Amino acid sequence: MTDTTPGPRARRDQYRWPALGFIAPGVLLVAVLLYLPLLWTVLLGFTEYDGLGDPEWIGLENYAEMFDDPEFLGSVLNTLLWVGGTLLVPVGIGLGVALLTWNLKGGTWLRLPFLIPYALSGIGVGVIWSFILSGDGALDQALAAFGVHDTPRWLVDAPLNTVVMILATAWQGVGVNALLFTIGLQSIPKEPLEAARMDGASGPRLFGSILWPMLRPLTAVVVGLSIVASLKTFDIVQGMTKGGPGRDSETLALTMYKETFVNSEYGLGSAIAVFLTVVTLLASVLYLRQQLSSKHGV
């Protein structure tokens, strides 16, 4: 009697087309909503286009104009300041809050006030802090009550306006970073900690020898997300200064928005979008590669 049971290859072939049918809608959706707009943006970066008529091919002129514009270079510097500030302030303070509260009874309630601002949108945070930092705003009035009348122009003078916006972002982001670090701390096995304490390790020594090495995988994720988010900073700047005064506090994302939707320079705006995408991808890849190399001792 002949055995008609299909082999492994035949069974795989049997389910291949139904499987492709299930994943095809998702692939099509991603292609239509992500890859086609990306391709169109790349093509527009080589054209002059104001949203009316047909795009005119001009090659690399948009990129040449972009790098010759001192205002664009200022946006690049502001974006780099955002990257550095976002890594130092919200990530650093978030780690500190987690270390101070993770092993305390009722630590969840101590972290809760830091987490609440994360529920707000970037524009909402911008409106709140604009009320606080505007001329004769809440902060100036509070300082005046203590006799301090010659206050800085928080949202006018550069780079002070960028610094206070980074602090406003930190107010929003500290809580979620503290939550992530707390999860990492709570996942550390108790045995190494108890052994280290029995050997006399505590405070900075315990952190440097036990806690920090075990937090490195999670720290890589937190820092990577912070780098990507800071490179794309838009909403809080739009809500607080709109890139002003003039263009002193613009970031790359805000410059892209203004060139595209305010000045109707769709070709130049697309070139800036492509540049920002490439920078974000390069930063992510280089950072992850460095982390993986460190992990494997390369």
UniProtKB/TrEMBL annotation:
Record PROSITE patterns: ABC_TM1
Start and end residues of each ABC transmembrane type-1 domain: 76-287
Record keywords: Cell membrane, Membrane, Transmembrane, Transmembrane helix, Transport
InterPro entries xref list: ABC_transporter_permease, MetI-like, MetI-like_sf
Pfam families recorded: BPD_transp_1 (PF00528)
Gene Ontology cellular-component terms listed: plasma membrane
Gene Ontology BP terms: transmembrane transport
Source species, domain of life: Bacteria
Membrane topology annotation: Multi-pass membrane protein
Span of the signal peptide: none
CDD domains per record: TM_PBP2
Coiled coil: none
Protein name from the UniProt record: Sugar ABC transporter permease
Organism: Glycomyces terrestris
